[in-house]
Amino acid sequence: SPDGDAVTPTRLRTDLARSLSQLYGTEVPAYTTLVEVSEQVNRDVLAADPDAERLGSIERVTAERHGAIRLGTPQELAQVARIFGACGMYPVGFYDLRDATPAIPVVSTAFRPLDRDELAQNPFRVFTSLLVVDDRRFFDARLEAELTEFLAARTLFPGELLELADLMEQQHRLTAEQGERFIELATAAFALSPEPVDRAWYSRLEEVSSVAADIGGVASTHINHLTPRVLDIDELYRRMGERGIEMIDRIQGPPRTDQPDVLLRQTSFRALAEPRRFREPDGSIVVDSLRVRFGEVEQRGVALTPTGRQAYDDHGIAALPDTDEQLDALDLAYYTRDEAGGLRPIVYEDFLPKSAAGIFASNLTGEGRSNAGERSARRDAPWMRDVLGRELHDPYDLYAAERSAGRGD
Ligand code: OOG
Ligand code: NI
């Protein structure tokens, strides 16, 4: 029957995650090693720890990935919102990485499923950053004008893909054939382009920021990384080292303690030099390399309430109590109750701006250049909501709603 073959948003998200994972594995072979080691670590933790699944079923954790992409214009962001919307992924949170050290000229959100059962079926999410071309701390008026012109002339997402996306958002289903076509076009849109890079233009942007060059120096976008989830990131870090893969020098986020895991811990291995074709100023094409993409891995813990987060941001993990019961009683973290009345943590499904900036920074090729004291362009959650033309969800509202629902409040 036609209905039996219909593709739902959930199915489309699962297929997209799998297809991008396959693509990225062919593009960045060390990613495949990372996935293998992550799966081994998860199996070992599951075997040794009876409570291993308290933060998510082994099926979910093993399938779990987040991706990162970087865009140049508000129009591109609005388009990608339609593509992810078709996959049941909606914008959550606003992150301003221009305030970080070193400052990165982007603002970001994450597209992800909102409901617990959707997350359980497939938790794929994409951290999505947008270049702020009119921020005078990074770009002078002339470079802004050139960037704007360059970005306006490119097309990241073909019309057919956007039409299929809109159809899915309207109908909540596509035919099997339409679904396949969607996946094919979406995967191609996020593949590394073989088109030559204009050397002079790329270099000018790179002087300001290698993130600006990665975004605005080429006529396409690509997955920057795809991140599996592990149940023990310290063990993962150790095993990757043993395999001779050079990791960045630290794990971002809260340190390991005997307290319940909170928020998000992440680490990455260095950007790999990938062969890329360049068009030189004399018109010749040469093969050189760029280091912009990398591997990242993460471990997730319980989501903190605004009060818990403030305490963590101000004083570190030591400011939080030692048990789930205390975290719950003091309203510092989110929990629901299981059938036996025990506490079940609500997993943190979002990102941390400090860690995100650290991940960006660990992979910058140069210092970049920014002019303190210059005008920063206004970018905030309301601005981004207007660009998206759809609701920008507040992560705390989602966690609070889940807690209330789970307790029958
Ligand atoms: C995004 C960096 C942030 C994370 O997991 O916090 C990020 C990027 O490099 O484009 O992916
Ligand atoms: Ni990431």
Task: Walk me through what this model shows.
Helix content is 43%, strand content 18%. With 409 residues, the chain is α+β, with helices and mostly antiparallel strands. Helix 2 packs across helix 11 and helix 7 packs across helix 8. It is globular, with a radius of gyration of 21 Å. The site of 2-oxoadipic acid has 12 residues, from strand 1, strand 4 and helix 14.
> How many domains is the backbone divided into?
1
The mean pLDDT is 92
Structural class: alpha+beta
Low-confidence stretches: none
Bound molecules: 2-oxoadipic acid, nickel (II) ion
Would you summarize the structure shown here?
Keywords: Dioxygenase, Iron, Oxidoreductase. By secondary structure, the chain is an alpha+beta fold.
Keywords:
single chain, 409 residues, alpha+beta, 2,3-Dihydroxybiphenyl 1,2-Dioxygenase, domain 1, 5-stranded mixed beta sheet, 3-stranded mixed beta sheet, 16 helices, globular, binds 2-oxoadipic acid, binds nickel (II) ion
Strand and helix map with partners:
Blueprint: H1 9-27, H2 29-48, H3 58-63, E1 65-71, H4 74-86, E2 90-96, E3 106-112, H5 116-121, E4 125-131, H6 141-152, H7 159-171, H8 176-189, E5 197-198, H9 199-208, H10 210-216, E6 225-228, H11 233-242, E7 264-279, E8 285-300, H12 306-315, H13 324-329, E9 335-337, E10 343-345, H14 353-362, H15 381-388, H16 395-407
Parallel strand pairs: 1-4, 5-7
Antiparallel strand pairs: 1-6, 2-3, 3-4, 7-8, 9-10
Family: Belongs to the 2-oxoadipate dioxygenase/decarboxylase family.
InterPro entries: HGLS (IPR009770), YdcJ_bac-like (IPR047869)
Cofactor: Fe(2+)
